[in-house]
Design a protein that fits this description.
CATH architecture of the largest domain: 3-Layer(aba) Sandwich
Mean pLDDT: 79
Number of domains: 3
CATH topology of the largest domain: Rossmann fold
Strand content: 15-25%
Radius of gyration: 37 Å
């Protein structure tokens, strides 16, 4: 198996006294940052607690005999059990610090959990004995010397406070915490004995001794069960209680370069030190060191797992792409291949943040990235056919602009505007980790691209502007206002799709199958009705634009367009009511980097699902 490791022990040319070749247990840099021996254990703490507890148990036992007190007898017996528990805990910690041997390659760290488990079982037995004995005292009361009980219990209380304080300094060890539960139970027992002594002195009422013993038993039962459950879970190699196993698997699959994960196991080798093993499928074994580095960092940062052993498995990737309308398969030893997979990028807007979804086709390690950005009421799925045709040469990324598709909706509708969209696209490019992208923007997507491309140090290398320009014709604004954000709900999906096809009639002639691919994802079912995928509030800023604001926006867009200095292809539908031929001519006049082409028999806007339109895009971006 492969993985990076951290060296735990000092270099030596000799074998250890146990006969183990130290190189077999050595860990190289980058793996676990702990030793298999329990460095956090503190034997001195347990030794001090053991001496104090065992010494006073003898004193209390003698006093209990002369005072004839159940409370003192049970407390003395409890302290003897505590001493045994502390002794067992001390022995476990000594054992756990032993180095690995030929028969125990992981060392002896589990001895602590085993001791904690045994301690908890003993504590349950002690609780049961106290309860049974206390009940019997109700039927056969014993005369108790209250003064002796009071004095001895007070001394025992002080001693237990000291022991509890000593043990509380080591909070990491489950074994020490199990011993601390014993001591806390004994402390409560001392309190109960003290109260019993005082009550007996003042009133002579003997049943108080038994009643307080039962109360103490119930108080310590909960902590005992908790330690028992934790140690049992550990001994059974359960997933650490603070780790979400399913989330670990999902996070591993999302690491760039990982194709699949299987045979995944997460457990604790020693208490508080989780470990992970598994098999990782990758496309190129040469990329494994980089992938393993990303995995190690993710597991440590998100899940606190720093002992990782993974087996890489090189697999051959087979994906389907559509080129020139024909499906074909190609085999390529590349990284992860996406085929419309959905991902998210965290974006900020005002005081709040939101997620923008994006859909991807192709190899994410491909440095050639094509961003396809949709129109006002559309979503990234518009470019599915185009993406399938181009994913062999490009990593094609098609975002759902915020408020659309799988992206979040904004609480402030006025943020549905180009500045927010540009900021989100910049965050997406940052997450993709590339310095250059090509851009295909339809309608609103073209406006976003123009503003982004005009910014200093823009990553856009080439841009296809699909049927939009700095000037929007009034007829188009009126048409958009007639349906954007307006009521749209149908009980029958076929009726909803038919209505949507009518709205999109200007996109050109398409077969029913093409309409289904193009417009089908626009419809979602909510409360039994088929509605549009987008937030109706995207119409709020659109509807608030007055003639003065529109003119100011047009001036700003012309200014931005003139600043762009990358190759641009302006595609216009010959029958478009949004982008006029005169506007296209002016765009090519004011910016020498722009050229244009007109597609006959199409209005606003060409859908880029037809083979000839896809070929046009491939030629421009090649």
């Amino acid at each position: 198996m492969s993985g990076s490791h951290h060296f735990h022990s000092r270099s030596s040319k000799h074998q250890s006294h146990s006969g183990v070749d130290p190189t077999l247990h050595a860990h190289k840099k980058g793996d676990a940052k702990h030793s298999h021996s329990k460095e956090v254990s503190n034997q001195n703490l347990l030794l001090i607690a053991l001496i104090l507890t065992l010494g006073f148990s003898g004193v209390e036992g003698a006093a209990a005999y002369f005072a004839n007190s159940l409370a003192l007898i049970s407390d003395a017996g409890h302290m003897v059990t505590d001493a045994a528990a502390l002794g067992l805990a001390l022995l476990a910690q000594i054992i756990s610090r032993r180095p690995p041997s030929p028969k125990h390659s992981f060392g002896f760290g589990r001895a602590e959990a085993l001791a904690a488990f045994v301690n908890s079982i003993a504590m349950l037995g002690l609780v049961a004995w106290i309860v049974i004995e206390a009940i019997s005292r109700f039927y056969d009361p014993h005369k108790v010397d209250g003064l002796t009980v009071t004095v001895v219990a007070a001394i025992g209380l002080l001693m237990n406070i000291v022991v509890a304080w000593v043990l509380s300094r080591d909070k990491k060890s489950v074994n020490t915490r199990a011993a601390l539960v014993h001591v806390m139970g004994d402390l409560l027992g001392s309190i109960a004995a003290l109260v019993a002594g005082i009550v007996i002195q003042l009133t002579g009422w003997m049943p108080i001794d038994a009643i307080l013993s039962i109360l103490v038993s119930l108080l310590i039962l909960k902590s005992t069960i908790s330690i028992l459950h934790e140690s049992y879970h550990f001994l059974m190699e359960g997933v650490p209680l603070h780790i979400d196993y399913l989330q670990v698997g999902k996070d591993l699959k999302n690491v760039p370069g990982v194709l699949a994960v299987h045979d995944l196991h997460v457990w604790e080798m020693t208490p508080s030190f989780p470990a992970l093993i598994g098999h990782i499928e990758i496309a190129n074994i040469q990329e494994w060191p980089e992938i393993m580095t990303r995995i190690n960092q993710m597991l440590l940062d998100k899940h606190g797992i720093d002992h990782v052993t993974l087996q890489p498995e090189e697999v051959q990737v087979v994906i389907d792409c559509v080129e020139d309308g024909d499906a074909h398969e190609f085999h390529q030893r590349v990284g992860v291949i996406h085929s419309g997979d959905t991902f998210y990028v965290q974006c900020s807007g005002g005081k709040n943040s939101h997620r923008m979804a994006y859909h991807a086709w192709g190899d994410p390690t491909n440095s050639k990235v094509l961003l396809c950005v949709h129109g006002l009421t559309r979503r990234g799925s518009d470019f599915k056919t185009l993406a399938q045709a181009m994913c062999k040469d490009y990593y094609v990324v098609c975002p759902d602009v915020v408020g659309r598709g799988d992206s979040d909706r904004l609480s402030n509708p006025m943020q549905y505007a180009v500045p927010q969209y540009v900021a989100d696209m910049a965050q997406l490019v940052k997450q993709l980790g590339v310095t250059q992208v090509d851009w295909l923007g339809t309608s609103m997507g073209g406006l976003i691209g123009m503003v982004y491309a005009a910014m200093p140090n823009s990553p856009i290398r080439r841009m296809l502007i699909n049927d939009v320009g700095p000037r929007i014709e009034p007829e188009a604004i009126k048409r958009l206002g007639s349906y954007v954000g307006q009521p749209f709900a149908f009980a029958n999906r076929a009726d909803a799709l038919n209505r949507l096809n009518q709205i999109c009639a200007t996109f050109g002639e398409h077969t029913p199958e093409e309409w289904e691919i193009y417009n089908g994802p626009m419809l979602v079912q909510r409360d039994g009705q088929w509605v549009m995928h987008y937030d109706p509030n995207i119409a709020v800023p659109f509807a608030s634009v007055n003639p003065i604001m529109a003119k100011a926006g047009e001036i700003a867009m012309w200014h931005a367009f003139k600043q762009i200095q990358i190759p641009m292809l302006i595609v216009r539908g010959a029958d478009s009511d949004l982008l006029s031929a005169a506007t296209v001519a002016e765009m090519c006049k004011v910016n020498p980097y722009a050229r244009s082409i007109e597609i006959p028999n199409v209005g606003h806007a060409p859908a880029f699902v037809k083979p000839e339109q896809i070929a046009l895009a491939k030629e421009f971006f090649s």
